[in-house]
Amino acid sequence: MSSKTKTATIGSSSSKKFGMNSKMKSTLIGWSFVMIAVIMICTFYFYPMVQALILSFQSGTGTNLEFVGLDNYKRLLTDSTFLTAVKNTFIYLIVQVPVMIILALFLSVLLNDRTLKWKGLYRTAMFLPAVTSLVAYSVIFKYLFANDGLVNTMLLKFSLVPDAINWLADPFWAKVTIILAITWRWTGYNMIFYLSALQNVDQSIYEAAKMDGASAFQQFFKITIPMLKPIILFTSITSTIGTLQLFDEVMNITKGGPGNATTSISQYIYNLSFKYTPDFGYAATVSYFIVILIVIFSVIQFKVAGDRND
Amino acid sequence: MKKMMMLLMASVLFLAACSGSDSADGGGGSEQDSNKVTIWAWDPNFNIAALNMAKEMYEKENPDVEIEIVENAQADIVQKLNTGLSSGTSKGLPSIVLIEDYRAQSFLQAYPDAFHDMSDSFNVDDFAEYKIAPTSFDGKQYGLPFDSGVTGLYVRTDYLEEAGYTLEDLQGIDWNEYIEIGKKVKEATGKDMITLDPNDLGLIRLMIQTAGAWYMEEDGVTPALAGNEALKQAFEAYKGMMDADIVKPNSDWSQFVANFNSGDVASVPTGNWITPSVKAEASQSGKWAVAPIPKLSVEGAVNASNLGGSSWYVLNGDSSEAAADFLGKTFGSNADLYQQLVTEIGAIGTYKPASGGEAYEKADEFFGGQKIISDFAGWTEEIQGLNYGMHTYAIEDIMIVEMQNYLNGKSIDDVLNDAQAQAEAQLK
Amino acid sequence: MTKLKRIFMYIFLTAAAFISVFPILWMIISATNQSVDVTKGRLLPGTHFGENLTNLLQTIDLVPALMNSAKISISTTILSLLIASLAGYGFEIYKSKAKDVVFTILLLSMMIPFASLMVPLYRMFGSISQTMPAIGIDTLTSVVLPTVTTAFLIFFFRQSTKMFPKELVEAGRIDGLSEIGVFFRIYVPTMKTTYAAAAIITFMASWNNYLWPLVVLQSPEKMTIPLLISNLGSSYSPDYGVIMMAIVIATLPTAIVFFLMQKHFVAGMMGSVK
């Protein structure tokens, strides 16, 4: 294997080169690679998804469901709790995802520096949050950000704030807490992807760039970002999906409060199905709204990242 | 390649072994066996402990019935029940389940065929009257009432004394008087009077029940928020506490408990099930007492209310007869069991024939020698009966938001009218 | 790089590392403290480690739950990696218009919130139980099956395959390897770090999975670790020292898997890719 320098130049066009095998056979082999996955996903995702779609045209409590046509979809538009949940989710999305991606990218580039000392230590430390379970870190954050919790104690001690910040009970600070929590938990996680991808980027490219007098910033934007594009696209889409489906953090840290200040769409779905008298029909409608949203976002992200011309 | 194949083989074998052991223990198919009763409940120190006592008593006389008690968190039980019942497969569901009274109507209405009619399994008149409305549906009795959520005002007598009050001054007061006392206490001791979680309106619920009012009309489905005098007064009292600066905020159960265990608040108005948590701080022994809960100054309001509390339900299935028999012979009629519950775990039932007796008359040194069980039992009889209806938690989420608006200056009438409009839109 | 820049870099990294580690450190410290001190946010290690551990072991069946979680997570991880990498490889190497369409459709499955799939999925396993109780409700297999194939992982392998030098495939064919041989002999060893990352992520997700095991598992002897922890907190008088101890123990396996797999990262980063 002596592929060191060619990595960057190979495009998908190479797959056209081996048309020696009969086309039929190659197609068949290709499909057999993906077959198990396709069957599994159809059975365990699409079949229930279709059932959920049918549900979204029904309404009623528990098992007393009846078809109501588009009523559920109309109800969405006037449902103030739902609209608040959408607004909150967008705030998380717009603030948290870019901050996290940039931070993760930045950290991974610093950690990939060959001359860095204690590299393993830093890397391990930053990965650790991703290892903790959701239950664990939610509990920890709840205590740290409590009214007389450690964070407030520290802030007051060093006179960084005049009064204790009401992290969990103030509508603004509660959102901040949620965003901090998600960022803490998932930045290292995304960094795993960047780091594992960065190894495939050939160091000699950087050395060549350095010889040409490129600054660190230039190297970052001209080499690192373009090389990592597929994986950046991947993480930004999965982070977007993760944020739009945000549930555990909100449920465990603030329960959506104070009021509805931190409620997410997924939490509202959960409430409709399991906290209130269950209306699975309407809950399914709300979840289809998320699906539509995510499809739109993914298309935008694919377009922006320009995956087509790789 | 070889390594990979080895790994593959190993994983296949491993999975086969896993599923093999699964089928070996029968996959928990309890519904085939009419003599096996599975019970779901939460809280090991309270409900589970009570179940274990009942099980022991019952199995002595009915050795052929196997009773399995499964502990799950309450939220988990609600979710599993909803998923299981709505899927229409009875497999995997228990024979008996504990359901909180606030949620009972919602389950009974949403899954009309799922619950076993218990009308013939016990004598309804033996139980506190206020427990009957939430546990029955369509004229049939489905739930067997269990613990009482009867409330009391837990107070620190030492702080009261510093502010110049005695326990006598707390008898028969309303919430406005409570706030006045709270101000004095804060002045004298620097301690807050109460600790509240802005996401939990339990206090509002217990306040309006002193006046026999609720979020819903008596039909249990029509929201009754706008023009609800009791609710209006409760909101005003809540804001009064905030404005008087006698509230220490908390954001979950652990902080709630910590706030009174650490001596930071002077009183805790809540259900009697808090007793073990209060007593957990042994160093405060002798400093606490329990006064009757303050009432709203609405006509007909009483100094007694309820917060929480739950009841037993039997699900239809092969073992429902055995399950109903178990409940009927234990929680449905066994006075000794209730005496034991009081002595051993401090659980106060709603079974009237048992309220009396030695266990109830015992003085509790932690509460300065007060006979708190006997006091709670007395208040239980005064609680106003209510149909909690279907949508307690859905409406409460609306009220939590509107409470924030109210605290931020919105007028009370607007608050209740807006809440009414939202509730009507959401619950049609 | 100038010296000043380097100093800033170290300060920044140290701060980031500290923020990352601190809450975990506090979690471990709390496991040695009693309940009251945990809620007060005590920073110093206490003397209640042994007591918390004994209480924990007395209140819950820790070992069987650990075993269940291990069985589920290990089989999920191995199967997931195999299925997803085959698919990711197939979609990228044998790229075609039709496959791209299928791929995009598969991605859709990632987007629907699990809360809304739960009821139909449960109903499905309910009917499977009638005929094949061995993989129906309340079996470990029923936990594994729906979670073993995720579009997420297929997507990940496909994106990573984009960076895989494709002339290696051709080289393998010239050497006379079969198509599947190319995959196992060339792709798998080359993509070691990708597999390591995928293994960590899948194992973690599976180990911490809560919603689906919660609804599909019923008997106490099938409980997984997250379910047990949830029960611990459900009491009206929970012991937070014990809960912290449980959380620490629950976190250990994912930490161990991470440290095991991390070696491969390190190896990769030192430039050992030939």
Your description of this structure?
- The complex is a heterotrimer of chains A (310), B (428) and C (274).
- The two termini of chain A are 24 Å apart.
- Chain A has one domain (80-309): Orthogonal Bundle (MetI-like fold), CATH 1.10.3720.
- Chain A is an all-alpha fold and 310 residues long.
- Chain A contains twelve helices and two strands; from the N terminus they run αββααααααααααα.
- Chain B has 428 residues and is of the alpha/beta class.
- Chain B folds into two domains: 33-149 and 308-354, D-Maltodextrin-Binding Protein, domain 2, CATH 3.40.190.10; 151-305 and 399-423, 3-Layer(aba) Sandwich (D-Maltodextrin-Binding Protein, domain 2).
- Chain B has helices at 2-24, 44-61, 74-87, 101-110, 132-135, 157-162, 175-189, 202-210, 229-243, 253-261, 275-279, 320-329, 335-345, 357-360, 372-382, 392-407, 412-426; strands at 36-41, 66-71, 96-100, 136-137, 140-141, 143-145, 151-156, 194-196, 247-249, 267-271, 288-291, 310-314.
- A five-stranded mixed beta sheet of chain B has the order 2-1-3-12-6. A three-stranded antiparallel beta sheet of chain B has the order 10-7-11.
- In chain B, a hairpin with a 2-residue loop joins β4 (136-137) and β5 (140-141).
- In chain B, α2 (44-61) packs antiparallel against α13.
- The radius of gyration of chain B is 24 Å and the shape is globular.
- The model of chain B is unreliable at 1-5 and 16-31 (pLDDT under 50).
- Chain C has 274 residues and is an all-alpha fold.
- Chain C has two domains: 23-59 and 233-274, no CATH class; 73-224, MetI-like (MetI-like fold, Orthogonal Bundle).
- Helix content of chain C is 76%, strand content 0%.
- Chain C is built from 14 helices and no strands.
- Chain C is globular, with a radius of gyration of 23 Å.
- The relative contact order of chain C is 0.14.
- The chains are: A mainly alpha (310), B alpha/beta (428), C mainly alpha (274).
- The interface between A and B is medium-sized, with 34 and 36 residues.
- Chain A: The chain crosses the membrane at residues 28-47, 90-112, 124-145, 227-247, 280-300.
- Chain A: One of its GO terms (cellular component) is plasma membrane.
